[in-house]
Structures are given as structure tokens and as C-alpha cells.
Amino acid sequence: MKFTINRTAFIKELNNVSRAISSKTTIPILTGLKLVASEVGLTLTGSDADISIETILHADNPDNQLAVESMGAIVLPARFFSDIVKRLPEDNLTLAVTEGFQTEITSGNASFTINGLDANNYPHLPEIDGTDSITLAGNVFKELINQTVIAVSTQESRPILTGVHFTLSGNELMAVATDSHRLSQRRITLPESASTDHDVIIPGKSLVELSRMIGDDNPDVEMRLSENQVLFTIGDRLFYSRLLEGNYPDTSRLIPTESTTTVEFDAHALLSSIERASLLSHESRNNVVKLTLDPAGKTATIFGNSPDVGNVEEELAASGFEGESLEISFNPDYMKDALRSFGQTVIRIAFTSALRPFTLVPTEDQTNFIQLITPVRTF
């Protein structure tokens, strides 16, 4: 096996594949990167058994400057190989595999020899036999992930909550995540109906890595589901993830349908205010920020307090006041995550009582995106 390739193009795909490679895996060969040189091009594969990423650098793409002299396959130690490639002196590199899986990497006057492994021992990628596929614009799918993955649980005590619950029914795709303290739900209407319904839970960690692979200029993302795996296709990149097993809790009953107090805020302005208040609340043991609403006086006020440092009080610009006066406390970090997911828009917050969860929705689209936060009892 021997090939020459443009180093910049190679590093770009090497970085993508490396997202799936972990040094902590119990299968030693999975700490390596699999390279396969063929007539079509150079295929890179990385996996940690939960996530697998495969990408191809095509020989007919002039940007790759790929010339395959002899075909073959090798598995190389990912961390060492990546460090070497990033520090080579010239724009191109040549990789040649000799006897006993010894691999020579040359660029300019620099030459490295590292020990490889037999690629035949590398686990095969999952076979996705599902016929149903969903195609979404890259920016839409990235937004869906970023809006929901903030609410997944980081506690392994309830593994099912460490994933995002995707349901596909007809032409509607819904994604929900909750850690039992907050919830995020996003609904998307698809251009075509799926032939069968699906109900799957995708690990939050997988979706975070997938989101990082979707650039601003990326083409559509295709999602294909099978019984225990999901495959995302982004151009020439394939991203596999295992699915979580079990039944996701029924979250629809958690979202209140009525409210006693509603108020509208500019999401960015509210975020800035809570960031200022949390400067002090983070110094306190309970990390709580309080919001008081007075519909009669049309005032909204944020309080942050730390017994050791001091306190902050700020009156907020708000509109659309309806209902009763209210005083409610919440975790500012949950609120900040929720507000960031709305971007630059006006949101409506609906409260039912000081101890019941409240919802945040964009005023322009109140049914397709909902964030829910459980308040903190302070008395």
C-alpha cells in the first residue's frame, strides 16, 4: 500500500474521523485509525464501538492531490499518526506500508516509521438495512441538535435520559430531551411522509459530535434508521451511532397546557440580564436567581444574591404582560442554555405557579419549539 496526498485535505478528514476514536476503549485496535487505499480513493475509518465515522477522499478530486501507487489497508495508532501528520514540513505526504505492517510516512526531509496493525482485524461497520430515510438541510439538523441536546442528562443512573428521543410519524419529526429538571422539544415538518413510524433514542454524546461535523456550508443530512443503529450521511462522510435501548418516558404530559401568568421578553436581552445576575448566584451554595413579575405595574425584576459577596437587582424590559403577579426562582444555568437556543428572537414565558414548571416558546412559532424549566423551591 502506497499513496501520496495533500496534507491539508487529509488533516481535515482526519480530524472528522478522529471524533469517533477513544483512547479508553476496551478493544485495543479501536484506538487506531483504519486507512484503505483503493481505485476510488482513500477511505478513513474511526470507531469507539458506540460511534463510527467513515469518510472518503476521492482520487478524482483535484483538491486532494491523491495518487494511489498501490492499494491496501492498514490500521495506525490514531494519536501518534495524527500528531505526526500535523507537524510534517511539506504540503504533501507519502505513506507506504512495508513488510510486517511497518508504515513509513515521508514529507520533504522528514521521515517517520511507525508500527501498524492488520486491517482485517478491525471490526466491520454496522449494516443499516432500514429503507426509510429522512433528509434535512444541514443547518436545520444542526439547529435541531443544538436546541435539544442541552437538556439531555449527564447522569448515568438513568441511561435512557442521556439520549434525545426522536419520533417519526407521517411527515413529522419530533425530538425531545429531558434530564427531569428541564425539557426541550423541537418539531419539524418534513416535505415527504415516511412509509413507517419510528421511535428511537440517540445518545446525546453522538449528536454533539455529529453537530460538530456539520459545517455552515454542508449539504443535506440524511438520517437512516435500523433496529439498533442510526446512520447519518453528510456528503462523503458516514456517521454511525448505536441507539439506546429502553422506553423513553412520556414527556407530553409534562408540558402545561394552561397558565396563570405570561410575559414576553427579547431573548438576548433576558439572557444578558441573567448572565449578570448569575455572576453573584454562582458564588452562592444554591445558585438561584429570582424573577418577580407585576402585571399591574408592567414590571419584571431579576434578583441575584450571594451572602458572601453581595446582591444584584435589575429591572427588565418586558411586554405582553397577562395574568397574576408572581415570584419564582430558578437555576440560571438552565435558563441561559434555554435562551441561547432561541437566538435573536422574542419569546413568551408562561407560568402556572411558583413551584410548577414554566415554558418558553418563540412568539412567532409557539407549537414547534418549546423549552421547559422546573423552578427551585427557596422556602
Automatic annotation (TrEMBL):
It is found in: Cytoplasm. Residues 253-376 form the DNA polymerase III beta sliding clamp C-terminal domain. Residues 136-250 form the DNA polymerase III beta sliding clamp central domain. It holds the Pfam family DNA_pol3_beta_2. GO terms for molecular function: 3'-5' exonuclease activity; DNA binding; DNA-directed DNA polymerase activity. SMART domains: POL3Bc. Forms a ring-shaped head-to-tail homodimer around DNA. Belongs to the beta sliding clamp family. This is Beta sliding clamp. The lineage of its organism: Bacteria, Bacillati, Bacillota, Bacilli, Lactobacillales.
